[in-house]
Write a structure and sequence with these properties.
Structural class: alpha/beta
Order of helices and strands: HEHEHHEHEHH
Number of strands: 4
Largest sheet: 4 strands, parallel
Radius of gyration: 16 Å
């Protein structure tokens, strides 16, 4: 609604989520991807809270766990309507994050959704802020190229 005043093209947007932000933002846009969302980027995102190994309450609250799990919504969505995605993984991150992220990427691949995946094998959670190294710079550079290619006029 405020694209002109913000000097952005409101018809060409990217949703970029980090960490736990994925359970809120990606799950929402994956329910039905609006046409103006041209691409999705997620760094070290929490893609599922359905695994009772890490979320014991998910056994009793299956519907709630599914509702807040981007991977669940990916499975419900028409794959042809999902915007291209760029996923970055921090190899030294928490197991519950990386396992869910791996599952999400696997499902996206099975559904033949355009997916760019980059792993930072020695990256910590928030590697883009805490790991000042060549791999971090490579991932950030690739992310910016991904954004440019999907948001260009």
């Amino acid at each position: 609604d405020h694209g002109a005043s913000l000097q952005i093209d409101a018809e060409r947007l990217c949703l970029w989520a980090f960490s736990q932000g994925a359970v809120h933002s990606l799950r929402t846009v994956l329910r039905q991807t609006p046409a103006y969302i041209r691409c999705l980027v997620c760094y070290y995102g929490l893609m599922s809270i359905m695994n009772p190994k890490y979320f014991p309450w998910a056994i009793e609250e299956k519907e709630l766990a599914a509702d807040f799990s981007p991977v669940y919504h990916l499975l419900q969505e028409n794959a042809s309507e999902v915007a291209p995605m760029f996923i970055a993984k921090a190899g030294k991150d928490h197991a519950f994050l990386n396992e869910a992220l791996d599952e999400f990427c696997y499902v996206a691949s099975l559904l033949n959704i355009p997916l760019t995946f980059m792993n930072h094998p020695t990256g910590q959670h928030c590697f883009d802020m805490v790991n000042d190294d060549a791999r971090t710079r490579e991932i950030i550079q690739a992310t910016l190229a991904f954004l440019a290619s999907h948001l260009e006029q």
